[in-house]
Amino acid sequence: MKTIIAITLFLVATLTLASRVEAQVLIIANPSVKATEVSKNDLREVFIGNSTSLPDGSRVVPILLKAGTAHEEFLQAYVGKNDNAYRAGWRSLVFSGQASMPKSLDTDAAVVEFVMNHQGAIGYIGKATPHEGVKVLTVN
Amino acid sequence: MKRLFVSALALGLLGGGGGVTQAQSLDDLNIQIHGYATQGFLYTNQNNMFTTSSSNGSPAWDEAVVNVTAQPTQKLRVGVQARYMLLGNIGNKITLDWAAADYKFNERIGVRFGKVKTPSGLLNETQDIDPSYMWALLPQGIYALTSRNSFLSHYGGIAYGTFRLDEKFGKLDYRVFGGQQLVGADDPAISLGMQGSPVQLPNGWSGTFLGGTLNWKTPVKGLMIGSSDWKYQYWKSLATSGATNGSQFSNPCNYYWNYARYEMNKVMVAAEYTRQPYNGGTTFPGSATNTFWVDVRAWYGMASYKLADKLTIGAYHSQSFDHQQPLQPARYSKDWTVSGRYDFNQFLYTKAEQHFIDGTELGYDSTMNPDGLKPTCRLTVLKIGVTF
């Protein structure tokens, strides 16, 4: 019984700490996207390929970073998967004919430029990255 | 003819899509090429499985897949995917996985047509996409390795979409589909299923069906519950016995699947049940009809845990019974499985799996086991895969 209580307390503590990790990333979108805020769940649905629009009807296209700190923090905070598992999920959609792989860019600056110039594009960047020309979405 | 028509139409759209958008750059068309290849190794302590010489250790399990897709607009996507597969005495040829055009009007309605993956059960659409899951072999009672080509896809179409319910009730994903299924004359479903019979199906086995899938993404985060149903129409194909021509038919029937999956952080738990009953017969002039009746009921429960960033472990138990078979090991198959997958990086992975199988209903070829089958068997599977 003591073991069960100890394991339960450990799991609760772990989950509590995990939920307090704040992502050091900004969610950015092309100004054509009507929404100004997005729920964590809706953001996840878009970035794992389950959804192509936000609840307000804005059609969105996810843009990824190939690697790096912002990419890892985004996946940890908003998707809940590591890079291997995340890309495996996309592969199941691609190889079953349900989706195309999202565009992956090398740098935060490239993401800003792409999102700025493509209607409906939505991406993520490090908080320190300059981001003129795109709108920042609040995640709630 | 219909099959050729829908495939030609889908492929025409692939070409036409490029034609009407000549002003666009290749980058704007978002043309992508992806693929993967796997090499498997099978070892059994007794019995030979999947038409391989697995009791001696067999590396005769290879797959290679390439797909090309283009997305000229946000709503239109076209693509084609080819597969090479070798499994013991099965395959060793290139087949068309799918060739389809997809138009998504909005979140609630999209259509896909051509040769399309059939979206039923928890894993039917993705059961042959090795890089996408951790198992080397999925539960064979529902996702038989030897019957992939015939039942994974159909010629016809799918309508699909998602409805957001009130926040308290989650989301509903639906798929409605129909068309023609074609089981080729050389497909293991026929070549293994009719082994020892003087009857042949020279044109294969084909017919039409309709189906639907409903997945409820519940308000409990990570929990999805779903159900699928296929309605087969009356099927009839040419049958031969020596020089005599006759026909084989199956009566309208209904297959269904019920399933649930829970995924949260590092944990995945899933379960699925299916029942697949069908009956029919073979008729030749001047002879009484030989009838057949199959009633397969299968289920599994599985769980996996991401032990480290690159390492996932899991286990499942699956059972399959043909309720029309007499009480003997050939009536059932029960399988306890432990498995692990290690991802070296996002392109290269390996899998190792151990099966403890009781019963001989699934996965055996009598010509590879001339001395008969032992009722139990241990199967070890190793696999390595690369994807891009």
Labels describing this entry:
heterodimer; A: 140 residues; 6-stranded mixed β-sheet; 6 strands; B: 388 residues; mainly beta; 4 helices; 57% strand
Describe this structure as you would to a colleague.
With 140 residues, chain A is α/β, with parallel strands linked by helices. Chain A contains five helices and six strands, in the order αββαβααβαββ. Chain A has helices spanning 2-19, 40-47, 69-79, 83-95, 108-117, and strands at 25-29, 37-38, 61-65, 103-105, 121-126, 135-139. Chain A has a six-stranded mixed β-sheet with strand order 2-6-1-5-3-4. Chain B is mainly beta and 388 residues long. Helices cover 8% and strands 57% of the residues of chain B. Chain B has helices at 2-19, 26-29, 148-151, 188-191; strands at residues 32-44, 58-70, 76-87, 90-106, 109-117, 153-164, 171-183, 199-200, 205-217, 223-232, 235-241, 244-250, 253-264, 267-283, 290-308, 311-322, 332-343, 348-358, 376-387. In chain B, strands 1-2-3-4-5-6-7-9-10-13-14-15-16-17-18-19 form a 16-stranded antiparallel β-barrel. In chain B, β14 and β15 (290-308) form a beta hairpin. Chain B starts with a helix and ends with a strand. Chains A and B meet through α4 of A and β1, β2, β3, β4 and β5 of B.
